[in-house]
Design a protein that fits this description.
34% helix; four-stranded antiparallel β-sheet; NADH Oxidase; alpha+beta; 4 strands; 178 residues; 6 helices; binds flavin mononucleotide
Length: 178
């Protein structure tokens, strides 16, 4: 099988990580992947905030009520903030960079998980974005789209079963009602 296709089939969201730190060369490659991501009009509106401090990771995991737990268990989190004044498809730009980061992590044999921040809230009603901005000193003009938690895998996940892919979502030539 083609190596890239194999990577796509084997990449699964990993939410449990070992204590092992990620070596600096791998961290650099992962960040380079984000910086290599294509952006609308090459505006490169993103900022990547690298967090490795245990206490900060714990605090980041409290950015919303549900679904941010993996950050507290990870040795590394990359917070993706964007400047919407630079380009209108800023959500797309941030999302592509996040995907590149996840794929580079997978190519290095590491596990990662996308933690949604934009549009999410803490139990006390505070928007997750504001909480993360304040915690890390990110200007309030830069919305936080997501956080990617990354670490050495401490759980096994099966590759995607490609026989179950939703081919009915593919329309050849024209829309076809199912
Ligand atoms: C936009 C987006 C938001 C997500 N938000 C979260 C999240 O907040 N917490 C979480 O644990 N996983 C989150 N995920 C991971 C998805 O749950 C996961 O990708 C999906 O269940 C498919 O599983 P897979 O990645 O193993 O193929 C998110 C994924 C995407 C693309």
């Amino acid at each position: 099988m083609d190596q890239f296709h194999e990577l796509l089939v084997n990449r699964r969201s990993i939410r449990r990580y070992t204590e092992e730190p990620i070596d600096s060369e791998s961290v650099k490659l992962i960040l380079e992947a984000g910086l290599l991501a294509p952006t609308s009009k090459s505006s490169r509106p993103w900022q990547f905030i690298v967090v490795e401090d245990k206490e900060k990771l714990q605090q980041l995991s409290e950015c919303k009520e549900h679904g941010a737990g993996p950050i507290a268990r990870a040795p590394l989190a990359i917070v993706i903030a964007v400047d919407p004044s630079l380009t209108d498809p800023w959500i797309e730009d941030a999302s592509i960079a996040a995907s590149y980061i996840q794929l580079q992590a997978a190519a290095l044999g590491l596990g990662s998980c996308w933690i949604q921040v934009r549009g999410r809230f803490r139990a006390d009603g505070i928007p997750a974005e504001e909480y993360v901005q304040e915690l890390l000193g990110i200007p309030e003009t830069l919305p936080v789209v997501c956080i990617i938690s990354i670490g050495h895998k401490d759980e096994e996940r099966k590759p995607v079963d490609t026989s179950k892919l939703l081919w009915e979502k593919v329309h050849i030539g024209t829309w076809k009602e199912i």
